[in-house]
């Protein structure tokens, strides 16, 4: 990748993308990070040898791509304050902020091209997934650059309707937290039944890893894979009967809908939607 990328915000997700890009061979000299918190910058510099600056405009100055990795609540102020700089060099803007519409970011920036996307934290290990959205003003070249950057840290796909980004955010953006919760709950259950915390955690994590890996590699559907674990009259059936009777599918579906609604609400609260 030959583009120079400026990250605005070096928090959880900025770090995940930077770490993933460096691990996949991006030259650290091509990455500059701006963040107001000096210890964040120091640790990014120590871990990944990227350039760091405390001033956003300094990061944008020589960048081909500006990757906006601040909270949705901060995005408007950040982009507006960079407008002059952005209009000077017209970099491609890539936003990972939940909820905020591409058109709002484009307007705050003074009209440059904006690709909106939703990556997730496993990007740090190179096994993220990112959905991208671009309106018709974004050139093929800029679509391709965005896909290359996010594609370096996991799978990518494009969505045609921006409204789908709310659902994407609820499924894969927030999704790692659901799986971590499941790991936590399995660990707690094992511990409450007498396993040591270390053993319970190892069993839960390796099971999550193996199941995800198997679901990814197998040509069978997740439902078929589940059925293959579930012996008639056996242990898994006992557990699944309990979960189904507790309405776990409806609960999960409502939880994901709540995340999608929050994404749409962020657009209304913080933008023009
Ligand atoms: N966390 C996740 O799994 C995912 C997050 N996202 C999106 O990524 C974005 C960032 O989220 P996340 O990394 O979790 O949040 P964090 O709070 O961890 O990171 C945001 C970073 O931006 C810094 N910051 C605050 N104000 C400014 C500013 N004016 N200029 C530059 N940097 C600033 C923050 O510093 P300080 O802490 O000192 O305020 C912080 O280091 C959000 O928009 C979120 O919706 C998308 C996909 C997944
Ligand atoms: O919770 C959030 O709002 C962000 C977006 C997706 C994951 N984390």
From TrEMBL:
Keyword line: Amino-acid biosynthesis, Cytoplasm, NADP, Oxidoreductase, Proline biosynthesis
Name of the molecule in the record: Pyrroline-5-carboxylate reductase
Main localization category: cytoplasm
Presence of keyword Kinase: no
GO molecular function terms attached to this record: pyrroline-5-carboxylate reductase activity
Organism: Steroidobacter gossypii
Pfam families: F420_oxidored (PF03807), P5CR_dimer (PF14748)
Documented EC number(s): 1.5.1.2
UniProt superkingdom: Bacteria
Localisation per UniProt entry: Cytoplasm
Family of this protein: Belongs to the pyrroline-5-carboxylate reductase family.
Top-level taxonomy: Bacteria, Pseudomonadati, Pseudomonadota, Gammaproteobacteria, Steroidobacterales
Reactions listed under catalytic activity: L-proline + NADP(+) = (S)-1-pyrroline-5-carboxylate + NADPH + 2 H(+); L-proline + NAD(+) = (S)-1-pyrroline-5-carboxylate + NADH + 2 H(+)
